[in-house]
Amino acid sequence: MTDSERARLLEHVVLVSRELLERARSQCVSIKLRTLLRYAYVAYKQHTTDLNVIRGLIPRVKPPSRLTNQYFYREMERTLRDNFNVRIEKRRQFRYAVFYK
Questions:
Q1: Distance (Å, rounded) from C-alpha 27 to C-alpha 96?
Q2: b/e map of 11-34 (b: 16 or more CB within 10 Å)?
Q3: How many CB atoms lie under 10 A from the CB of residue 51?
Q4: Domains plus CATH for the chain?
Q5: What pTM value is reported for the model?
Q6: pLDDT tens, residue order, the chain (101 aa)
Q7: H-type helices in the chain, by residue range?
Q8: For the chain, how far is it from start to end, CA to CA, in angstroms?
């Protein structure tokens, strides 16, 4: 994956996160980083930010293994911290992004 594709995918991470925050009723939204990456990848491939469409396509579209590594997750964390009021937590064996409005 080239740097421009990587940057576009990180941009979709921000777009999907904004959509999640806009639709949330509560002041705090918690999502696994793995799930957020899958949402962003589907949004990137299908050119949509509609959460209903994204959630419907999640079982059929999987991100490539070159994206599901600790280095890309760290880039995601850095991007989220720069754009949102977010805290990264580790619960059990998974990393979660906790967004605050």
A1: 16
A2: ebbbbbbebbeeeeeeeebeeebe
A3: 15
A4: 3-100 (1.10.10)
A5: 0.91
A6: 678 888 999 999 999 999 999 998 999 999 999 999 999 999 999 998 899 999 999 999 888 888 888 999 999 999 999 999 999 999 999 999 999 98
A7: 3-23, 33-46, 51-57, 70-83
A8: 33
